[in-house]
Design a protein that fits this description.
This protein folds into 5 domains: 100 residues, Rossmann fold, CATH 3.40.50; 70 residues, Dna Ligase, domain 1 (2-Layer Sandwich); 119 residues, 2-Layer Sandwich (D-amino Acid Aminotransferase, Chain A, domain 1), CATH 3.30.470; 123 residues, 2-Layer Sandwich (D-amino Acid Aminotransferase, Chain A, domain 1), CATH 3.30.470; 40 residues. The protein has 18 helices and 20 strands. The chain is globular. 38% of the residues lie in helices and 23% in strands. It has an 8-stranded antiparallel β-sheet with strand order 13-12-9-10-11-14-19-18, sandwiched between helices. The chain binds ligand MV4. The site of ligand MV4 has 17 residues, from strand 8, strand 12 and strand 13.
């Protein structure tokens, strides 16, 4: 067993997750290096770390995605490892490879595992070979229209056309009628090419009204893998998760142990090392299929930590040091129930438009069974450049009902002024009968929009307007980065203009 203790970690991230990671480092006696953009000089992760270095302009392409700068900062600060958090460079195989070449320990899986799982067609192939159930569909990329039509006629509509380089809901098209195949295929291909620079597509049978259930796994480099049970993530809006809970209210112990065994098999097939998540999609009859693997620490990891009693960041670091897993599957049990609510700086009465600004007051909930992972403070201005997540509120209860009651209490105590937040919206979710009964799927928010949203409507047209606002915000960010990166900026602008034209033509 080859072990190399980590003494100093550079955290290549910002916001709540950067602090979350540094907290575990502090408990382990590991020093931390923060990196920050021009927009983050006053950010909390900069204050929390032992050292902090500016890595560039506000747009993430100039800072949190700047591989050369981050590697150089790690080396000059004497860090021996890099934790990428989630988002940004966390699933970037080239970055993991650079770390390896530069003698820095990437706290995460190998670039080969990231690449294999990042390519959804190769992931599907691997899973089929490992005996893991995947959604019925193509195993090779779809090269032409005739082939697609022939295949879809065979398995029957509805189907999803997906980008192999996509994931998380990006680059997908639902095909309900055979007559839509050609146009959907064309649209999906051009979108995939634009968004990922890779136009490979595959086709899956459409699973209607699905549940999104994912399994947390941990693997060491000696071939030991355990799962840490499931997270139910079906309460989401436009592929953004809103509430997560564990255990799932719908799966049985028997299904749980079968899914867990498949999750372990999936990780082993990927020759995986570190913490990862196997996403399954489950239909109304409780049939489940592998969807994709996330090769990073996830936003919602704390509910697993709470119910299983494992600090996932510490385990990631121990694994990266070359240690064996300190527990076996039999050592792990679920105890009680945990729920996470994501608090975003968004205007829920205005199509969840991001609402950055200055926090004029904040009171966070405390007390038994409560964890609040945040990063904002009174007087702090949330920058426009990044994700609008303010904090994650995680509660534990002995039973699901107790956890819901505790979440209601915690949301009642939570006060934020200065920016609009999702807190009241989350209170309404906790009070929705379908949620209380645990009877919900991925259509939950849309189905309950009358009581959840002020306007009571889930309006397509308004979504388009929100998109235009996002576009406007994006353009203002681009203006800033123009000086340094003229060529790619121009290309991005053209793509966005093309997309904007498509949307405006629908209004
Ligand atoms: C699907 C699907 C139905 N059928 N695939 C969305 C995110 C990405 N990970 C895959 N997604 C879906 N794939 C087939 N064959 C429905 C979704 C989907 C979804 C999945 C999980 C959680 C929320 C979702 C919301 C809409 C669509």
């Amino acid at each position: 067993m080859e072990q190399k203790p980590i003494k100093k970690v550079l955290v290549a991230n910002r916001g709540e997750i950067a602090i979350r990671i540094m907290r575990s480092c502090r408990e382990m006696g590991i020093e931390t290096v923060a990196v920050f953009s021009d927009a983050d000089r006053t950010a909390m992760h900069v204050r929390y770390s032992n050292e902090a270095y500016n890595i560039g302009a506000a747009p993430s392409s100039e800072s949190y995605l700047n591989i050369d700068k981050i590697i150089a900062t790690a080396k000059s600060s004497g860090a021996d490892a890099i934790h990428p958090g989630y988002g940004f460079l966390s699933e970037n195989a080239a970055f993991a490879r650079r770390c390896r070449e530069e003698g820095l320990q990437f706290i995460g899986p190998s670039p080969e595992s990231i690449e294999m799982m990042g390519d959804k067609i190769s992931a599907r192939k691997k899973m089929i070979a490992a005996g893991v159930p995947v959604v019925p569909g193509t195993t090779e990329k779809v090269t032409n229209e005739a082939e697609a039509i022939k295949y879809i006629k065979e398995i029957g509509v509805p189907v999803m056309i997906k980008a192999s380089a996509g994931g998380g809901g990006k680059g997908m098209r639902l095909v309900k009628k055979e007559s839509q195949i050609a146009s959907s295929l064309r649209a999906a291909r051009s979108e995939a090419k634009t968004a990922f620079g890779d136009d490979a597509l595959y086709i899956e049978k459409y699973v209607d009204s699905p549940h999104h259930i994912e399994f947390q796994i941990l693997s060491d480099r000696y071939g030991n893998t355990v799962h840490l049970f499931e997270r139910e993530c079906s309460v989401q809006r436009r592929h953004q998760k809103v509430v997560e809970e564990t255990p799932s209210p719908i799966i049985t112990p028997e299904i749980r142990s079968r899914m867990g065994a498949y999750a372990v098999a999936a990780a082993n097939a990927a020759n995986y090392e570190g913490a990862g998540t196997i996403e399954f999609i489950m239909d109304e009859q409780l049939n489940f299929y592998f969807l994709e693997m996330n090769t990073r620490l996830q936003v919602e990891h704390p509910i697993t930590e709470r119910v299983v009693g494992v600090d996932l960041v510490k385990e990631q670091i121990r694994i990266a040091e070359g240690n064996k897993l300190p527990f076996t599957q039999d050592d792990l049990k679920q105890s009680g129930h945990a729920i996470e609510c994501r608090i975003y700086a968004e205007d829920t009465d205005n199509n969840f438009m991001p609402n950055p600004g200055t926090i004029t007051h904040i009171t966070e909930p405390y007390g038994f069974g409560i964890r609040c992972d945040g990063y904002v403070y009174e007087g702090y201005t949330i920058p426009i450049y990044y994700d609008s997540l303010i904090s994650k509120l995680i509660v534990w209860g002995r039973t699901r009902d107790a956890a819901i009651e505790r979440m209601r209490r915690a949301l009642y105590e939570y006060k934020i002024t200065g920016v609009k937040t999702t807190i009241r919206f989350l209170e309404r979710i906790m009070d929705t009968p379908d949620f209380r009964k645990g009877e919900y799927n991925t259509h939950f928010i849309e189905k309950n929009s009358a009581s959840l949203l002020a306007e009571g409507i889930y309006d397509k047209k308004n979504e388009d307007i929100a998109l235009i606002a996002t576009y406007a915000q994006y353009m203002s960010r681009i203006e800033e980065s123009k000086k340094t990166n003229a060529a790619t900026t121009e290309k991005k602008e053209t793509n966005w203009k093309r997309q904007l034209r498509k949307f405006t033509s629908r209004i």
